């Protein structure tokens, strides 16, 4: 079935279709630019957020390490002043333990006989071990204080919290370890500082942090409501993770493509990349930011994962808003185009077509509107005025010619009638003459008939005379 459309409908469809196509292309181009721009802004926001998370972690770790360094400094002062009472050193630890309830433990461990030279006298007490060394530790278990001894300091893979400051003379942050406190296994990290006397390291002061608190703190951070933040040591070991079983694992075990990030963490450098995150189960914008802890030679790092789709969500919202706005705009423009076409084209064109129809029917005494317009419709109407005037002039000429023809016809008819009258008169005269002649002929004929009759009578007389003569002759003859 063939659909016939009017000029206005074609203009609206073609104009609206072209507008919709151009608008779609424009929206696509702008949305691409907007998506890239929003993605860049989201990435920059992610970088800023990552730096803020790293700075917050650095502040907290620096604060906790400063407590250990403060304890170490106080004990260095006590030793320099010749204080050898273990109770005095215990008081320092207990005061710091009380003042910082967020700490899991506060402790100090000295080299053999480094406090009072009488380790042997304290062997077997609750805050030391069989060596009798100063190993006092205040721990917090279920909001209660427990006095105990530092363990695991001598050797083994987890002895770095003590051995490293002793050997290097520098503060140290241990990787996550599990310590048994009051019969409970607790994941902790230790921040330690060396205790010096006359330039020689004679002990270590430290604080232990409950990793559950740190894990909960970082796991509460969800960049753009969908990402996460993970803390790593300078050795690329996991400190916090949404999956607690991953704590202590190497970074390279968390993701197949994490080798570059592990190297960056070990070097204390920043690195960012789009990659797949098993913990988020999505493509993420991954940003590794160093965590510069005051007092530590090498920084830790925080790895922030931000879902890429969440970063693009804002651009998608902009795109959807642009699409909806574009559709509304197209509808409004098409409606405006329809009204405009109806006002400027369809209505005046229909009026012009009506005028053409009336002119075609021979009506010339009509007014043509729209001749003042300076567009094609105005030109058409002015042409119609010219056509109307021409048609009226032609009609006037036709009527004049018809009148002239009628006058000529009447003249011819009058001339013909005059000729006919003349002819009739002449014919009538001829007829009269002929009638008179006929009468004369008739009279002549009558006379001739009289003469003929006389002649006939005379002939009969002559014939009779002849017959009589003939008889007489015959008689004579006979007589002879």
From TrEMBL:
Gene3D superfamilies listed in its UniProt record: 6.10.340.10, PAS domain
GO cellular component: membrane
UniProt keywords, alphabetically: Coiled coil, Membrane, Transmembrane, Transmembrane helix
Coiled-coil regions listed: 392-440
Keyword rRNA processing: no
Name recorded for this polypeptide: HAMP domain-containing protein
Positions of the HAMP domain: 343-396
Regions crossing the membrane: 12-34, 321-345
InterPro entries the UniProt entry points to: HAMP_dom
Entry-linked Pfam families: MCP-like_PDC_1 (PF22673)
GO terms of biological process kind: signal transduction
């Amino acid at each position: 079935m063939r659909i016939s459309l009017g000029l206005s409908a074609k203009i609206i469809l073609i104009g609206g279709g072209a507008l919709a196509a151009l608008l779609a292309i424009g929206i696509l181009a702008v949305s691409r630019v907007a998506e890239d721009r929003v993605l860049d802004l989201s990435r920059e926001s992610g970088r800023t957020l990552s730096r803020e998370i790293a700075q917050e972690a650095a502040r907290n770790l620096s604060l906790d390490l400063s407590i250990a360094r403060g304890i170490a400094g106080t004990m260095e002062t006590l030793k320099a002043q010749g204080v050898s009472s273990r109770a005095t050193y215990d008081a320092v630890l207990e005061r710091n333990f009380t003042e910082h309830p967020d700490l899991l433990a506060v402790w100090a461990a000295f080299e053999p006989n480094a406090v009072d030279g009488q380790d042997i006298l304290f062997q077997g007490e609750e805050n030391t071990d069989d060596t009798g060394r100063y190993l006092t530790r205040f721990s917090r278990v279920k909001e209660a204080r427990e006095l105990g001894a530092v363990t695991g300091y001598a050797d083994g893979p987890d002895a770095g919290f003590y051995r490293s400051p002793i050997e290097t003379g520098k503060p140290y942050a241990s990787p996550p370890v599990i310590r048994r406190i009051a019969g409970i296994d607790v994941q902790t990290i230790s921040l330690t500082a060396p205790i010096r006397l006359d330039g020689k390291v004679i002990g270590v002061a430290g604080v232990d942090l409950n990793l559950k608190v740190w894990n909960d703190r970082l796991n509460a951070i969800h960049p753009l409501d969908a990402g996460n933040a993970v803390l790593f040591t300078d050795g690329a070991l996991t400190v916090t993770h949404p999956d607690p079983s991953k704590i202590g694992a190497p970074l390279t075990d968390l993701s197949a493509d994490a080798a570059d990030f592990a190297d960056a963490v070990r070097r204390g450098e920043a690195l960012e990349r789009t990659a797949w995150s098993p913990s988020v189960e999505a493509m993420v914008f991954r940003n590794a930011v160093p965590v510069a802890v005051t007092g530590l030679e090498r920084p830790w790092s925080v790895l922030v994962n931000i879902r890429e789709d969440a970063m693009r969500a804002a651009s998608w919202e902009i795109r959807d808003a642009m699409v909806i706005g574009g559709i509304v705009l197209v509808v409004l423009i098409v409606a405006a185009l329809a009204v405009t076409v109806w006002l400027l084209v369809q209505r005046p064109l229909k009026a012009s077509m009506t005028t053409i129809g009336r002119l075609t029917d021979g009506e010339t005494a009509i007014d043509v509107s729209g001749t003042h317009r300076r567009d094609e419709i105005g030109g058409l109407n002015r042409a119609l005025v010219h056509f109307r005037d021409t048609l009226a002039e032609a009609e006037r000429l036709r009527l004049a010619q018809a009148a002239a023809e009628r006058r000529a016809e009447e003249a011819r008819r009058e001339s013909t009638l005059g000729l006919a009258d003349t002819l009739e008169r002449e014919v009538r005269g001829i007829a009269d003459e002929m009638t008179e002649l006929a009468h004369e002929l008739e009279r002549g004929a009558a006379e001739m008939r009289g003469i003929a009759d006389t002649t006939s009578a005379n002939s009969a007389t002559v014939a009779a005379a002849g017959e009589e003569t003939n008889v007489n002759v015959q008689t004579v003859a006979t007589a002879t």
